[in-house]
Amino acid sequence: MNNDHDARMQFAIDLAQRAGELGLRYFRDLENLTIESKGHQDLVSQADREVELFIRAAIAVDYPQDGIVGEEHASVAGQTGYVWVIDPIDGTANFVRGIPAWCVVIACASEGKAVLGVIHEPSTGETFHGRLGGGAFVNGRPIRTSAATSIEDGSVGTGFSNRADTENIAVLIRALMADGGVFFRNASGALMLAYVAAGRLLGYVEQHMNAWDCLAGMLLIEEAGGAVVKPDPKTVLQQGTLVITGGKGVFPKLHELCSEAFKF
After folding, report:
1. Which segments of the chain are extended strands (E)?
2. How far is 252 from 264, CA to CA, in rounded Å?
3. Comparing C-alpha atoms, which of 143, 122, 141, 123 is closest to residue 220?
4. In this structure, are 219 and 129 located in the same domain?
5. Averaged over 97-118, what is the pLDDT?
6. Mean pLDDT of 99-121
7. pLDDT surpasses 60 at 99
């Protein structure tokens, strides 16, 4: 099984990098990009759709019996129990405005649990990847979550979910700052999760994320020695999940702050 996961891992790394090259071509030609709104602070571009189709086509060739769940196109049912979970461009709001903070996200799940994840940031050339039981890496170098024991020792990534009460994130940020912490937001949840895995952020929290935005990054964080609130494997692919992650020294505090702010 691990050999199969190794092969899938290499396939996903290569595919994310090739998809990133395609995304960059659109990013460098923004004046000709078609952009639409899907809702409040929720944009989609021709690039999102084309990059996802590119990823889906590659999966259909190499793993035709696997399922696919993606942000921009309909789900594909598979026969193998494996499901590829993809976000072609996470950080579309940045992408369409020329801000170089966006990434390609590819995870592969079995029975609702991620077995591998790749987050590729084309603008920096960084590829974060991890496999269940195999550690987490950036450009081949091992990464670890922060060893900090206080939220005063760094920044906590925060996300805004349009599927949750907007007041809740304001409550959380107020509590975080009252305890000596500071918040960080770059409008790409997947990228911030990768930064947690690499120890750049103490943690990342968001009241609700879709599977394609968070499964890869949460696996990376666990493989890098961090802690996460585990999603429900039965519902996460269709319904998304609460996300609370961090280095083990700060995770209990982040969980406490989120439980008060998000009311769970």
Report:
1. 35-39, 42-45, 67-70, 82-90, 103-110, 113-121, 126-131, 136-138, 141-142, 155-158, 182-184, 203-209, 227-228, 241-246
2. 15
3. 143
4. no
5. 97
6. 97
7. yes
pLDDT at residue 31 greater than cutoff 90: no
> For the sheet containing 227-228, what is the strand order?
182-184, 155-158, 203-209, 241-246, 227-228
Q: What is the mean pLDDT of residues 177-206?
A: 97
For residue 91, CA distances in Å to 49, 97, 185 come to 14, 10, 11
CB 205 within 8 A of CB 229: no
- Reading the block at residue 149, the tokens are 């024991």
Assess whether pLDDT exceeds 90 at residue 124. yes
Q: Tokens 């923004």 correspond to what residue?
A: 30
The CA dihedral of 178, 179, 184, 189, to the nearest 10 degrees, is -110
pLDDT at position 146: 98
Cβ atoms 36, 143 nearer than 8 A: no
Give tens-digit pLDDT for 232-253: 999 999 999 999 999 999 999 9
CA–CA separation, 210 vs 175, rounded Å? Answer: 25
Model confidence at 46, pLDDT cuts 50, 70, 90, reads: confident
Residues 163 and 51 in one domain: no
Out of 123, 142, 161, a domain closes at: 142
Q: Which domain holds residue 163?
A: 151-262
Q: How far, in Å, CA of 168 to CA of 242, rounded? A: 13
Residue finishing a domain among 119, 142, 165: 142
pTM of the full predicted structure?
0.95
Cross-strand pairs, 136? 130
Pairwise CA distance, residues 142 & 179, whole Å: 31
Contacts of 216 (CB under 8 A, 6+ apart): 85, 105, 106, 107, 114, 117, 118, 119, 190, 193
